[in-house]
Amino acid sequence: MVVVSRCARNCRQRGSFRFCVTPIAEPFAPFSGLRCASRPRLTSDPAARIIFACMNHKPHVAVVGATGAVGLEMIKTLEKRNFPASRLTLLASARSSGKRLKFQGEEITVQELTRDCFAGVDIALFSAGSSISKEFAPLAAREGCVVIDNSSAFRMDESVPLVIPEINAADVEWHQGIIANPNCTTAITLMALYPLHAAFGCRRIFASSYQAVSGTGAKAIAELERQVDQVVHGRPVTHEVYPHQIAFNVLPHVDSFLASGYTKEEMKMENEGRKIMHHPAFRASVTCVRVPVYRAHSVAVSAEFDKPVTVEAAREVLEQAPGLQVIDEPSRNRYPLPLSMAGQYDCAVGRLRRDSAMDNGLAFWVSGDQLLKGAALNAVQIGEELLGRKLESVGA
Ligand code: NAP
Ligand code: 2RA
Q1: If you measure from the C-alpha of residue 93 to the centroid of ligand 1, how many angstroms do you get, rounded to a whole number?
Q2: Cis peptide bond upstream of 138, omega within 30
Q3: CATH class of the region 185-370
Q4: Which of 97, 250, 268, 390 has its CA 20 to 30 A from that of 179?
Q5: Minimum-distance ligand to the CA of 256?
Q6: Whole-structure pTM over 0.85, yes or no?
Q7: Looking at residue 17, what is its pLDDT?
Q8: Ligand 1 pocket test target in 127, 185, 372 with most atoms within 8 Å of CB
C-alpha cells in the first residue's frame, strides 16, 4: 500500500485541517493500491462520508467551560502532558469573563463564549453541559474545529465516535467534526471490564456505583463542604444542588429518573458500553449512588462471561491492561480507594473474586478519578490520538 499525502480528488481544506471526503464504500481511486493519508482506514458505517481531520501544525486549542470542575482539570492536564498547543483560548459564561487562569506559567483571560469564538481554533474541549454543546459544538465543527465533547449531547449519535483511547482509539478516524467523551462512571467501569470482555466475552453486568460529588460539578463540591461545616457546628443543613443532604448520607439517585425506574445515568453504562466496546448485545443493570466523597468514582461490578474465568486468569489479563492498576491484596487491606485514586491518571481494580451467584461470573471493584479518566484526561488523550494519527499516516 502506497500512502500519498493527499488524493487531489476528494481532499478538502477546512480551516487548518486537511481531510478526505471519499465515500468509504467507493474504491480509492484513481489507482488501486494507493491510499490518501487524509483518509481513514476504519469506519463502522461503510456508507458514511468521512471527514478525517489531519493536523499540519501545532493546534490552537480552546476549553469551553474552562472555569468548571472539569475545565480546570483540562487546563492542568494539557499542561502536565505537554500537549503541543500553539495557543490556548479559555471560554466560559459571561459570569467568568475577565477571570484569569494560569497555563504554562502565563495568565490567560477567560472570555465569554459567543458564536464567533471558534474562528482559527483547531481543537475545542467542551465541558459546559449538554445545552451549550448542542448549540455551539456543531457551529465550532463548521468552522473547521474538532470538538471533543464531555457532555451527553452527542454520545449516542451514530455520526459521532464515542471514544476511550485504551479501548477504541481507531474510532477517532471516522469523526465528522465532533468526538464524544463517555460518561465518567461508564469510562471507569470499562477500563477494567473491556480487557476482561476481550479475553472472556462479557454477556452482562450487575453493578452499583459510588459517585463523588465533584461528578456534579463545582457547586456540589461547595455544597458538601458547607454541609459538613453545618453538621459539625450543629447548624441547620441547607441544600441547593441535591434533593437531600449529601454530607454523612448516600443518595440512590444520580441524574433524572426514566419511566423504567432506572435513571439516565444508570442506562449510560449499557448504551455507551455497547458503542465503545463494539458489543451490541452487552447488557447492564446498574444502580448509581451519590456518596459524600469529593473526588473519584468507584463501581462494584458482577460480570458474567461466555467463557469460564478464574481469578488468576482475570488478574493476568488486568495486569496487562493499559491505564489500569491491580490493587488486590485483601489480606493486607489493600484494594482501590477513591481517596488514593483522586488526582491519578490510572484507574485501579481489586476485590477480584469468583461471583458466587453466576456461572462464569467475576466480581470486582474499580475506582478512578472521574474528573480525569472520566472527563479531562480522556478528552486530552483523544486530542493526542488526533495528532498522533497524522504522524502515523504520513510515516506509513
Ligand atoms: P461545572 O463545574 O458546573 O462547570 C460548568 C462550566 O460550564 C463552567 O465553566 C461554567 O462557566 C460553564 N458554563 C455554564 N453555563 C455556560 C454558558 N451559558 N456559557 C458558557 N459557559 C457556561 O460542571 P462540570 O462538572 O465541570 O461539568 C461540565 C460538563 O462535563 C457537563 O456536561 C458534565 O456532564 C460533564 N462531565 C462532568 C464530569 C465530572 O466529573 N464533573 C465527568 C464527565 C462529564 P461559569 O463558571 O462562568 O459559570
Ligand atoms: C456524575 N456522571 O457523576 C456524572 C458526571 N457528569 O454525576
Answers
A1: 10
A2: no
A3: alpha beta
A4: 97
A5: 2
A6: yes
A7: 47
A8: 127
